[in-house]
Structures are given as C-alpha cells and as structure tokens.
C-alpha cells in the first residue's frame, strides 16, 4: 500500500495559509484548538508553523502511541505536557475527557492543546460531549488560489469596492493544468510530482486508514466504486436510488457512505435554496468533491485539453469555483452558507451565497467568451428575490472582466 505521509527529512516549501491569524486568535481565547479537514490538507504543517516553537508534538496514528494513550490517559498527558499538538486525535477519542480534566484544572490558561483530525463524524460527537465551551473548532481545506498566489486575505468579489484593482488573469491552459493537479499542499509546493501516483496513493491511504475504521463501511471495493460513481455525477442533481441500483447496494448504504465522505471532508453536499416565492423548487441536493485534482483522478482524466473539452468540463469548473468560495469562508473561521437555486421549470443559478443582508447569485461558465445571455438565470433570480438579491456574477475561464447586464458582472476565475 502506498503511504501519503512524507519522509520527514524531505523539505516541502511552506505555503502561508490564510487561516494563520484565525488560529492565533482562537489560541488566545480557548484552551483547546481543534483543526479538522481532509487528510493531507496541511493541518499538522500549519499548526507546527504557527505554534511549533512553543509546543510539543505527538502523532496518535501509530498503534503503540494509541495504545499508550488508551492504557493510561492521565499518565500520557503528563508525559506530553501542554502546550502540545496531538495529531489525528480521532485515533484516541477517549483522551478527550482527560484533556477536559486537565483544562479545567487551569481554566484561565489558553492555547494549551492543539488537536487535528480528519474524521469529523467522531470528533464532533466527542467534542460536544467533552470539550463544549472549551474548544475552538476550525477547518482547513486544501490550498486556495489566494494562498497559492500570495494574496491569502483577498476579499470575495461582492465584498470589494468597485474600483478595486484587477488580479492578473490566468491563461486557460494553465487554469486546466491546475484543475488536474488539484490544490493539496504537496502538489502545489512541488510542481514536478507525479500527480497520478500521488492521487492513487491518497485514495489507498484514505480507504485503509480513514474508511476502514468506520462501522458504516464493510466492503472497501464497493465503497471505492461508490466514490468513482459520485465523481462521475459531480455537479448534477444526486439521485442516490439510481447510484445504489447501478452499484448493487441499498439506498440506506448509499446514504451512509455519502455521510462518511462528507464527514471525512472528501465531498461537499450542496443543498437547494428555498424561499417562499410561490414557485415549485427542486429539493434534490448536488455533490461536489473538495479537490478538483481528486475529482479528475477518480474520473480518469489526465490531459488538461480533454478535461476542458469533455462532458465533465462544466462540472469540474463549477467545482473549482465553489471550492474557492468555500475556502475563503473556512479560512476566516466562518461556516459557508452556499446553495444552488433551481425551479421545477428548469431555471437554475449554479451558486447562491448568503452574504450579510444579501443573496449573491453566481453562474459558472467554462467559456473564455462571456456573453449577456449567460446572465439570464441571474436576472430571473434577482427579479424573483427583489431587494434580497445582491449583485450577480458570471465566473468564466477567460481573462476579461465586463458588465453583462444591470447589476451582473462577468469575472475571470483568477479574480475569485
């Protein structure tokens, strides 16, 4: 089995993360900081970068370390005194009540325990039981393009003044090469890595370490087929009954497996926006992967031109846009509130972002030539929602920014 963990002697360029100031602020206000996110998104690296000089570090993944923590939790904590980083704490969830005990003995001391985890299913339940009110819980996703290009705190388009300076555009061939590569830190920092081998190793490690331990999953081969079936349906209305029938599993199994993928941060389930506007609306959700590189790997895409021109070109581009917005919110320590809007008559806006006081409609078009017709669904949304609707944006793969309609602007992907 390939292992995604790197040799500690191999140095990888550190990419400054937008979450760093939020981590420092949380550590100054809470005794425990929990950083969740998918495997290999850089959780350990950023904690070591921000707090490592003053903190110890211990991984709870090795079986002998896990056994020591389970056998004598108090002794284990004494052996690794705070401040300390405990990596992959889902492997030793029974440690959390003893961390609570330690915290309560010195309640006024903040920034004592830094925990990482890649299984939200276990962590959320245990944190609620043991560390409610004592822990800040943040999420780190793979690198955003803001972070990659050195503008980690760049605001979202609707948050910027109209006279803001434009970001340098990105040529479409570079854009699609980046989509195939994905945004996991190792691949961004080391452009010469074999991306196919990396993603293959990632999937194998994910299945063996994260999925095998979860009771909802028995057959890893069938689960991997489910993973690929979802990848082929990314950005579409998700009919789990059809997926279950195609794979020969029950609908309840499909639902359980989807919840596993969501809880291990491999997919985002996007739900439709509902409001009382007197129309019948679609209620079925959509599913997106949390990395375009993983999506391309799972669907067998290896060439940027084939990816752009093929049937998954639109869904891949839509995934990329959604991820940049989700990461922008997560990197501020905020929970993104993003939906799609679709009427039963077929009018659809790809993304609807709940911003303060406004609903921001966004259309995604994998075309380098934005046209006014691309704004029609946004205009319908703005008409239906009136004052609740904010400015609309058509995000495209080209290099120009221009108005398409009143209160609708076409923006290149690089400006997200």
What does this molecule look like?
- It is globular, with a radius of gyration of 22 Å.
- Helix 5 links the parallel strand 3 and strand 4.
- Helix 8 packs across helix 14.
- The protein folds into two domains: 120 residues, P-loop containing nucleotide triphosphate hydrolases (Rossmann fold, 3-Layer(aba) Sandwich); 271 residues, no CATH class.
- The chain is an alpha/beta fold and 416 residues long.
- The protein is built from 17 helices and 13 strands.
- 40% of the residues lie in helices and 16% in strands.
- The strands form two sheets. Strands 7-6-8-9-10-11-13-12 form an eight-stranded mixed beta sheet, sandwiched between helices. Strands 2-3-4-1-5 form a five-stranded parallel beta sheet, sandwiched between helices.
Write a short abstract of this structure.
With 416 residues, this protein is α/β, with parallel strands linked by helices.
Mean pLDDT: 91
Question: H/E element string?
Answer: HEHEHHEHEHEHHHHHHHEEHHHEEEHEEE
* Widest sheet, order of strands: 7-6-8-9-10-11-13-12
User: Major sheet: size, sense and barrel closure?
Assistant: 8 strands, mixed
Summed up, the domain count is 2
Number of strands: 13
* Structure classification: alpha/beta
Unreliable spans are: 1-10
Gyration radius, rounded? 22 Å
Indicate the overall shape.
globular
Share of residues in helices: 25-40%
**How many H/I helices?**
17
How far is the first residue's CA from the last residue's CA?
Answer: 38 Å
Q: What is the beta-strand fraction?
A: 15-25%
């Amino acid at each position: 089995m390939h292992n995604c963990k790197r040799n500690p002697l191999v140095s990888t360029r550190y990419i400054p993360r937008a979450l760093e100031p939020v981590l420092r602020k949380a550590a100054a206000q809470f005794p425990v900081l929990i950083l969740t996110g998918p495997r290999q998104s850089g959780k350990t690296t950023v904690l070591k970068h921000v707090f490592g000089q003053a903190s110890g570090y211990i991984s709870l993944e090795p079986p002998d370390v896990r056994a020591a923590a389970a056998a004598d939790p108090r002794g284990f904590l004494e052996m690794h005194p705070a401040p300390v980083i405990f990596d992959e704490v889902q492997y030793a969830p029974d440690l959390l009540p003893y961390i609570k005990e330690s915290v309560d003995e010195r309640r006024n001391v903040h920034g004592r325990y830094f925990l990482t985890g890649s299984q939200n299913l276990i962590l959320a339940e245990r944190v609620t039981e043991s560390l409610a009110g004592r822990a800040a819980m943040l999420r780190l996703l793979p690198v955003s393009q803001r972070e990659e290009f050195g503008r980690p705190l760049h605001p979202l388009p609707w948050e910027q003044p109209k006279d803001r300076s434009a970001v340098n555009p990105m040529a479409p061939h570079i854009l699609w090469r980046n989509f195939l590569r994905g945004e996991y830190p190792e691949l961004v920092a080391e452009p010469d890595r074999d991306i196919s081998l990396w993603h293959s190793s990632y999937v194998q490690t994910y299945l063996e370490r994260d999925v095998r331990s979860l009771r909802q999953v028995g057959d890893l081969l069938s689960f991997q087929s489910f993973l690929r079936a979802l990848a082929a349906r990314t950005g579409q209305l998700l009919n789990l009954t059809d997926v279950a029938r195609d794979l020969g599993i029950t609908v309840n199994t499909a639902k359980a497996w989807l919840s596993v993928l969501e809880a291990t941060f491999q997919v985002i389930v996007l739900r439709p926006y509902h409001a009382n506007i007197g129309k019948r609306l679609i209620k079925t959700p959509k599913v997106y992967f949390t990395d375009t590189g993983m999506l391309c790997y799972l669907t067998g895409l290896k060439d940027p031109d084939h990816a752009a021109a093929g049937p998954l070109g639109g869904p891949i581009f839509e995934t990329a846009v959604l991820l940049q917005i989700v990461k922008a919110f997560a990197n501020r320590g905020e929970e993104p509130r993003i939906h799609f809007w679709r009427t039963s008559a077929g009018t659809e806006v790809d993304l609807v972002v709940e911003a303060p006081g406004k609903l921001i409609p966004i259309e995604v078009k994998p075309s380098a030539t934005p046209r006014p017709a691309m704004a029609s669904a946004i205009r319908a949304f703005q008409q239906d929602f009136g004052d609740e609707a904010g400015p609309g944006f058509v995000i495209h793969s080209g290099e120009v920014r221009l108005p398409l309609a009143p209160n609708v602007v076409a923006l290149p992907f690089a400006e997200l």
